[in-house]
Amino acid sequence: NFTRLTWQQMLSAVHCIHEERVIHGDLKPANFLFVRGTLKLIDFGIAKAMNDDTTNIYRDSHIGTLNYMSPEAIVDTGSGVDGVRMKCGKASDIWSLGCILYQMVYGRTPFANLHMVQKLQAIINPNYKIKFPDILEEDAVDAMRQCLRRNPQERPPIVGQGGLLNEHQFLNSNRRNTRS
């Protein structure tokens, strides 16, 4: 299925930059490009490199595309001297990948129906329930739910224990679960 194959290639591309200790920070469909049948990740305009001893980077401003922006990229963490630096790590890119998968499945992003201020509030509000209308592919919904957890520590890694690419049933046919 095209959605599964495309998302798998997106995960692989993002995993490659994470292995090089780079956080993209602005993942969206327009930043992926098919070149001779292979998906490539482009536009590293706001990407940040991480030091070997860090797991998150700090950004000085709210830059990114709101429909794909993680809660932690929006919320002021207050960790900078001026109180405006935001802590973003690999989990921020995972959130964005979840928004992209949601758009691939439903034809819109999770917060597309909201105006900007409502959208900002909904993204960061753990009490705002993201709607997952019925689809036959339960495993796709599970992958989206995991990626779109408000707490970044609760989001799955791309690879590793509970990894989206190597263990999640949506991308591993021997564990696939669909409704009849």
Explain this structure to me?
This protein is α+β, with helices and mostly antiparallel strands and 180 residues long. The longest helix has 18 residues, at 2-19. Mean pLDDT is 82; it is low at 46-63 and 78-84. It is built from 5 helices and 6 strands; from the N terminus they run αβββββαβααα. The chain is globular. It has helices at residues 2-19, 71-74, 90-106, 116-124, 138-147; strands at residues 22-23, 32-35, 38-41, 48-49, 56-59, 86-89. The protein has a single domain (2-171), classed as Transferase(Phosphotransferase), domain 1 (Orthogonal Bundle), CATH 1.10.510.
Molecular shape: globular
CATH class membership: Mainly Alpha
Give the biggest beta sheet: 2 strands, antiparallel
Number of domains: 1
Strand order of the largest sheet: 1-4
The arrangement of helices and strands along the chain is HEEEEEHEHHH
Residue share in β-strands: 5-15%
Estimated structural class: alpha+beta
Count of alpha/pi helices: 5
- The mean pLDDT is 82
* CATH homologous superfamily title: Transferase(Phosphotransferase) domain 1
| Terminus-to-terminus distance | 17 Å
- State the CATH architecture: Orthogonal Bundle
Give the helix proportion (percent range). Answer: 25-40%
- Indicate the radius of gyration in whole angstroms: 16 Å
